[in-house]
Amino acid sequence: MTNSDTAMNPDGGVEVWRTDMQPALEMNLMERIVESENLQRAWKRVKSNQGAPGIDGMHLEDFPAYARQQWATIRQSLLDGTYQPAPVRRVIIPKPRGKGERMLGVPTVLDRVIQQAILQVLSPIFDPEFSEASFGSRPQRSAHGAIKQVKQIIKAGHRIAVDLDLEKFFDTIQHDVLMSRVARKMHDPIVLKLMGRYLRAGAMVDGIVQPTEWGSPQGSPLSALLANILLDDLDKELEKRGHRFARYMDDLVILVRSKRAGQRVRTSITHYLTDKLKLKVNLHKSQVVKIEKLEFLGFSFRGIRVYWSDQAFADFQHRLRGLTSRSWGVSMAHRLERLNQYLRGWMNYFGISQYYRPIPELDSWLRRRIRMCYWKQWRRPRTRIRHLLKLGTSKRHAITTGLSRKGYWRLSKTLATQTGMTKEWLEQQGLLSIRDLWMKVQGYA
User: Fold this and answer.
1) Whole-prediction pTM value?
2) CB–CB of 103/92 below 8 Å?
């Protein structure tokens, strides 16, 4: 029997601690998972994340009524270890720039709530011992933290990057390798069995359930934690060898001082990943390069200065073209709402880039695209002339432009449309300024 000490917890209760200072958490974890308060927090999180239905077709709004009727039975099956998760609904989405496909697994709402409840109990057990160089899907950590870590390592003189690409990481995780690492710190047999069942629950594809003999479905609340548990062995190995690195989920970059050292590191760490963790390394995409040629999490580096990558910026422009396409038959209010939502999200992430030069031109281009959309929406010459006059355009220019048969894009840069649909007027309609968003993220506004 394990020796233990007791201590008062902040709520006045007594906690039992093993003599090796590890919490005695191996038993009764499921009771903590199904506690009412924990489940309420899990449901709120799942609800806020939205998400599509699983294979049962249940929508989020239908879940409370279902839970009121069925939860007592479900809870008991969780406690006695007989609960059987439903297969996920397989969704395949194309990767950006046509680089293959990504397979997502959409669990049922019930399984999302249960997995979120498990996550809330397990995360405080595992997360505190994860590496300081691990930034993906962890509390108080983000991709921006990983970028800052890379900047600091570059500043210390490590200017050669070992960029390792894990091929189809989530799809190729071996269950026994993963679960053996979960079992190192979490010993509740009922929870371990349930997590194994989630991994092996299968996927519904074209109405047929396909077995999942390996992999952890992206899209489930537990997938990120399980990935970090598996890759924590890699982090610890890198730390043991004295390497400087940053990892965001399966995106890993190791920084060294010379190309020869980089080649050695790439070879040895590739062997570790394939032999110890049974993961696949894409040798064609893995590379050893100068820091100026590295693209990490959508950013590139010029010394210690951070820029968005050329490809990330090209994708940004491509998406803006889609949101300002004149053939998109939606109201201008809806268009601007969707556009602003995308602009905020993109700039909140990429706005830490220190590359300002293209922003004013892009702002001007975006305003011209919106003018083009208004011009298309106004349609008839009489309507266009009336709007231009109302916006303060001179009568002569309003009539000449309103009657013109030239193309939408060309007319969006005429004196009439620019003096009518001014920058200030477009801002009044709700259009955000890319420059203002960038200045805000940079801390200038």
Assistant:
1) 0.85
2) yes
Amino acid code (one letter) for 205: V
The rounded distance, in Å, linking the Cα atoms of 38 and 32 is: 8
Residue 193 and residue 73: Cα distance in Å, rounded? 19
**pLDDT above 90 as % of the chain:** 83
pLDDT digits (tens, 9 = 90+) for 296-306: 999 999 988 99
* The 3-state secondary structure of the chain, one letter per residue: CCCEEEEECCCCCEEEEECCCCECCCCCHHHHHCCHHHHHHHHHHHHHHCCCCCCCCCCHHHHHHHHHHHHHHHHHHHHCCCCCCCCEEEEEEECHHHCCEEEEEECCHHHHHHHHHHHHHHHHHHHHHCCCCECCCCCCCCHHHHHHHHHHHHHCCCCEEEEEEECCHHHHCCHHHHHHHHCCCCCCHHHHHHHHHHHCCCEEECCEEECCCCCCCECCCCHHHHHHHHHHHHHHHHHHCCCEEEEECCEEEEEECCHHHHHHHHHHHHHHHHHCCCCCECCCCCEEEEHHHCEECCEEEECCEEEECHHHHHHHHHHHHHHCCCCCCCCHHHHHHHHHHHHHHHHHHHCCCCCCCCHHHHHHHHHHHHHHHHHHHHCCHHHHHHHHHHCCCCHHHHHHHHHCCCCHHHHCCCHHHHHHCCHHHHHHHCCCCHHHHHHHHHCCC
Looking from the CA of 107 toward its CB, the CA atoms found within 13 Å total 25
Contact 421, 374 (CB under 8 A): yes
Q: Is the pLDDT of residue 235 over 90?
A: yes
**Residues 146-171, mean pLDDT to the nearest whole number:** 95
What is residue 222's predicted lDDT score, i.e. its pLDDT? Answer: 94
